Amino acid sequence: MRAPGGSQGGREAVAGDILLSVEDVSLSFGGVKAVSGVSFDIRKGEIRAIIGPNGAGKTSMLNVINGFYHPQQGRITFKGEARPRMRPHDAAHGGIARTFQNVALFRGMSALDNIMAGRTLKMNANFFWQMLRYGPAMREEVEHRHKVEEIIDFLKIQEIRRTPVGRLPYGLQKRVELGRALAMEPELLLLDEPMAGMNLEEKEDMSRYILDMNDYFGTTVALIEHDMGVVMDLSDRVVVLDHGIKIADGTPDEIKGNQAVIDAYLGVAH
Amino acid sequence: MLYREAGQFKTSYASDQAIFPILQDRIGIVVILAVAFTLPLYADDFIVNAVMIPFLIFSLAAIGLNLLTGYTGQLSLGTGAFMGVGAYACYKLTTIWPDVNIIVWVVCSGFFSAAVGAVFGLPSLRIKGFYLAIATLAAQFFLEWCFIRIPWLYNENISGAIEVPQRELFNIIVTGPRATAETRYYVVLCLVVAMTWIASNLMHGRIGRTWMAVRDMDIAAELMGIRLLPTKLMAFAVSSFYCGVAGALMVFLWYGGAEPAVFNINQSFTILFMIIIGGLGSLLGSFLGAALIYVLPIALRFGPELLGLHMHAATVEHVTFMVVGILIIFFLIAEPAGLARLWQIGKQKLRVWPFPY
Q1: Which domain range does residue A45 map to?
Q2: What pTM does this model have?
């Protein structure tokens, strides 16, 4: 549905149904208002960027979507269903996966086991068969290993599958974390600064994986990123937060020309 | 040179997911099992009774604690008490229903321990690390108090201790003073082998991965859909099950009787030291730790005699303490992750020998 090399000069708009909508959400910690009265939506199949200066409330927004924080006010509708108090594992059941700003891999486990862990929800052999590691348990293990190998191939991390992730360089850790999120076959994937601390080449690789994933698996992506080049190239629509308030929402081209956004990033003369 | 996997091609994921994917490891495990099962044929009673039986029992308890602390990351100081629950449960069960197979009661006593462990695991949702250790310390003191203050638990015995009655299995005396070391050894060995195998299966599958996920990064684990409380409680239950069975075995097949002091805080510490030195999150480490802490001192006591030195018994004792202490420090400095890691590094070196990597 998207022309090859479509990332040049912005991407074609995706006009899918609304997958997730955030309506008038406010979140505060004591006297600190992290997010106030923010509304936006994410359409099925799009790459949606959330940007803003440091402390704008971007990560808080993701944590609200995930169910780590519960907003004091406002409503979140996912797949047409409003869930007032969602816990993180409910979000996982619903099909929301997430990567973290600072890598949150299971450090003591191999890359393979990390990605296998992403498939926990899809596995259901009971305790008895698990004890014997036979019958349904073993069948399931092999079946999911096939899926995981597909992801390993997709991310080109074959040679590190047996390496404990704690020993991998940062760029690869980020890639394994993406793999682990992909293993959940999410409908909505939240990426919190996937390119932070990467060099240009790694950023290009990561961008490629995000675009491919969006194309091949049809995964809807919401991403927070500070690299404006990446954001403008990758995303279909961008929402801009500043001090917990939404200041702009639109296509990358609209955002580039928006005066409020320019002021937020560059400051205004008083 | 012998330890190579060259030429061993995996043609299916099932064989790649095997617990011992390398042929030499499989041969090794068969050899170890063969030696273990034929040991009473050529070893004397002392080795079987005073070395092997306790070694296996301590290993089982260490596996129990390792499942909780090493794999799930929940620090516990209640091991001794959970072992005690197993021992007292087994005693009550076999004195109330003496006709039931004693092995059945030993295994069943694990369930009592599991239930108690799960209850004392409840605080783990809110607290972690050292603070959780203090919460489990409450279990240690409370349960020890129960063993002393509730006469029903030791059948109102005047001595306050439990004495193991004689029980037979297929006309062979398994427990009690008249049971032979050989019989007891085989019972312990079979249970330990079976339970180690089960633990290994669990840890290599989905359950093991969820436990390790909770240990390494609980926030991310929650996002994968892993519910923290049920996962932690299950770890507490399974871990306590292992400790409970180890406790029951300890009293029924080794000591032959026990007073509450057996299950005091020192026991908990001993098991904890075993898994720290052996290797957290490693089943092999549980065995190595038990060997270092329990078997090594015994072996060292015979050292001077074998070297032809005649030393005072008390001197030997002191020297043993010193040598064990030095070895513990040495191993921890050489590899803080434990003996199991040393073993792994050694294997890796062998695999690539003569090249450094």
Answers
A1: 1-95+227-270
A2: 0.90
Write the CA distances from B230 to B69, B122, B242, integer angstroms. Answer: 16, 10, 18
A209 within 8 A of A203, measured Cβ to Cβ: no
pLDDT digits (tens, 9 = 90+) for A48-71: 999 998 888 899 999 999 888 889
Domain count, chain A: 1
Å between A120 CA and nearest CA of chain B: 7
- How near does any CA of chain A get to the CA of B19, in Å? 10
- For B209-244, write each residue's pLDDT tens digit: 999 999 999 889 988 889 999 999 999 999 999 999
Structure tokens given for A244: 């917990």
Residue A115 has pLDDT above 80, yes or no: yes
Structure tokens at B93: 């069960």
Nearest CA among A80, A82, A136, A142 for reference residue A116? A142
- The first and second tokens of residue A114, run together, are 């990390």
Closest Cβ opposite residue A93 in set B212, B219, B225: B225
Condensed to tens digits (0 to 9), the pLDDT of residues A184-224 reads 999 999 999 999 888 899 999 999 999 999 998 889 999 99
Query: What number is the ipTM of this complex?
Result: 0.88
Inside any domain, residue A109? no
Query: Does A173 reside within a domain?
Result: no
Residue B43 Cα, gap to closest chain A Cα (Å) = 32
What 8-state DSSP symbol labels residue A118? T
What pLDDT does residue A4 have?
Answer: 43
CA–CA distance, B122 with A70 (Å, rounded to integer)? 24
- Please name the residue that has the structure tokens 């892993």: B226
**Residue A151 counted as domain residue:** no
Q: Do B202 and A130 touch (CB under 8 A)?
A: yes
Is A189 within a domain?
no
Single-letter amino acid, residue A258: N
- Considering CB atoms only, which of A92, A108, A137 is closest to B224? A92
Cα A243 from chain centroid? Answer: 22
Which of A66, A124, A131, A190 best tests the B interface by mutation, with the highest count of B CBs <10 A? A131
